[in-house]
Amino acid sequence: MSEAGQSIGTALHEGTEALRAASATARLDAELLLAEVLGVGRSHLFAFPERPIPAATIEAYRALIARRRTGEPVAYLMRRCEFRDLTLSVTPAVLVPRPETEHLVEQAVACLPAGGQVLELGTGSGAIALAVAHERPDARITATERSTAALAVAQENRHRLGLSEVHLTPGDWNEGIPPGPFDVIVSNPPYVQTTAAEWGNGALEHEPREALAAGHDGLADIRSLVPPATAELARGGWLILEHGARQGGAVRELLQAAGLEAVRTECDLAGLERLTLGRRP
User: Could you tell me which residue ranges the Release factor glutamine methyltransferase N-terminal domain spans (predicted)?
Assistant: First the structure.
């Protein structure tokens, strides 16, 4: 990148070029990071491209661009991300919430009766539980997390968003889950194969492995949580799980084997099988 003292427009161009080989969203990344160090909205960058940038700000921007070139997620660099209508704090202790996970929230809200009880297993940043609480203030929501560091992030988000009614508690589904009955149990569990190519190409190296890796076929955690989750569903309650794009068939079989009915898989906006749900008779 060129010397400090450059304009906003020049900095954006050079940041984009620096990221082009490392990110499919190079221009957007550069915009977000420059807006972050300037303390302005992205619209400011477009309105005032000729404005000079202070030297110290250029150095801070360069440092973020360098980190992004290594594959570090923009959300970690900014320490926040957008999910549904919420702004969430995120750290390397939690997965960065993905856009496709918003569909999990939509399904949970659609399946939830008035005043219903929801359990989220493995809440991470709290994204799913807090989004459901935001959209359904009538719901009674419990969310568990086995990572102490991740649970602290979820608690921070709950406090900052004013969603104190969400009950956050330590928990590992391998050791049991809170007693129901729950009208909806939802989870975005680990589902990446331990042999997946993403482990070797750096795509996942910055996010917590324990929140991603799930055995040789990516189904170890889903296998372990389905039986106890099913047992805590209310009659007519729904179990809703996010999974990998090629795991829909296997997850449908697991839910059917657990005795759930009306089992179906929903696709994400890219047309990939992304979540499967089933109802307890």
Answer: 11-77
